[in-house]
Amino acid sequence: MNIADLHVLVIEDDDFQRKIMVRMLASLGVASIVEASNGKQALDEIHRATPRPNIALCDLDMPEMDGMEFLRHLGEEKLTIPVILTSALDSKLLSSISRMTRLYGIHLLGTIEKPVNPVNLKSLLSKHGPAPVRQQSAADSTFSLEDILAAVDADQFEPYFQPKVDLRTGSLVGAEALARWKHPHHGVTGPAAFIPLLESSGNIDKLTFQILDKAAMACRRCHDHGHVMPVSVNLSLVSLDDTSLADHVMQIVRRSGLDPRYLILEITESAAMTDVAPALENLARLCMHGFPLSIDDYGTGSSNLQQLARIAFSELKIDQSFVQDFSENSSLRVIVESSIDMARKLNVKSVGEGVETRQDWDMLRRLGCDIAQGYFIARPMDLDTFTAFVKGYQPGLMVAKS
Ligand code: C2E
Ligand code: CA
Ligand code: CA
Which of 6, 169, 171, 248 might form a disulfide with 30, Cβ 3.0–4.6 angstroms? Predict the structure, then answer.
């Protein structure tokens, strides 16, 4: 979409900053601008303004209704307005808020640390396109914690597997296990409907261990059929607080008979940056026992080399918000390129996530990224489908695709 077609809603309580943003937007040539000084006013404006805003710039810390509450309402009311977050808050916090935003099913174009400048603003505005197909989001979920815990007990959760492919050779080099709820009435339901509640209520470990167990078993089965590759499992930041985590993970994987080196544990960048001693203890112990660690959603936080160097990780997954359409956006390309460079210098694998198009694939390949994961290759699939996928997989086809 053209910048000239944007109807922008600016939500900012500081009059001065709001005026500056309005002026920048006007000089970038947007079609119209409406202003609000808190979330409540912003919702009113969305319902009232014609044409309805098709993009929102949203501050987080505001009186009456803050940015987070506004985002929740946006999700609950299914108002599909893409959002850019602006904030002076700590980048760790910003990254967890971006995550929350995405889990609410909101299309987050990106975050800008204040003070906002025209270059950042323009590059994020130009990411604006048709909203992605809405996945099951937390806002769609009507599930209570009780429903979810009962389902955990009834063993209704399963990993779906999404392949990872070597960008140079096209060979299959692994798969990420992503939790799905096989709901008896609602069908296959994505993580947004249950992970936030499990995490916030301190119950995520039960699910983690089930997924870990099933993923390890599936991986073993793959090996038995001659397809030797690792599987990746996601660990929540909250799980890392409990120092018994590493032992539990060990026990489960040992029971499956899988060598830990085939079980990659993905932790988000914000978890990798944590200073909390128990988390570092867990990560060190897991690494000591041979589990490769992967840094997930890289680029959404702002970790520096020193912080990353504290953790012996072996893979860096570049967040999909940078990879998607980065072939058309030079600022995103710079981020992706420097992430790949950094991975190379640290001697770890780089993985581009959210590869949706041939252009993304080609560009990653050109930049020397090691591995790709995304809809362009395949969507996450259940074990039977994945097993068939692995059997019929032809590396040449992927490379020929480029
Ligand atoms: P994630 O770890 O970043 O996983 C990648 C997400 O991107 C998955 O969403 C995947 O389906 C989606 N994806 C993959 N390729 C593409 C693409 O080309 N385009 C787009 N638009 N999306 C793509 P999913 O399965 O909905 O999972 C969402 C998040 O939920 C995951 O993000 C992860 O943080 C969390 N999650 C999933 N399973 C588990 C789990 O077992 N435990 C924990 N703690 N978290 C999990
Ligand atoms: Ca992941
Ligand atoms: Ca990720």
Answer: 6
Q: What is the pLDDT of residues 118-174, one digit of tens each?
A: 888 888 888 776 544 444 444 455 799 999 999 999 999 999 999 999 999 999 999
Q: How many domains are there within the chain?
A: 2
Question: Phi and psi of 159, rounded to 5°?
Answer: -80, 140
pLDDT at 311: 81
Least confident of 185-194, 221-230, 266-275, 329-338: 266-275
pLDDT of residue 26: 93
Cβ–Cβ < 8 Å for 87, 61:
yes
Q: What is the pTM of this model?
A: 0.71
CATH code of the domain containing 87? 3.40.50.2300
Angle among Cα 321, 79, 114 to the nearest 5 degrees reads 50
Distance 16 CA to ligand 3 centre (A): 36
Question: Is the minimum distance from the CB of 323 to ligand 1 under 6 angstroms?
Answer: no
Residues 119 and 169 in one domain: no
Nearest residue by C-alpha to atom 7 in ligand 1? 354
Alpha carbon separation from 276 to 100, 283, 293, 360 (Å, rounded): 21, 11, 17, 36
Active site residue 266: no
Q: Which domain holds residue 13?
A: 3-125
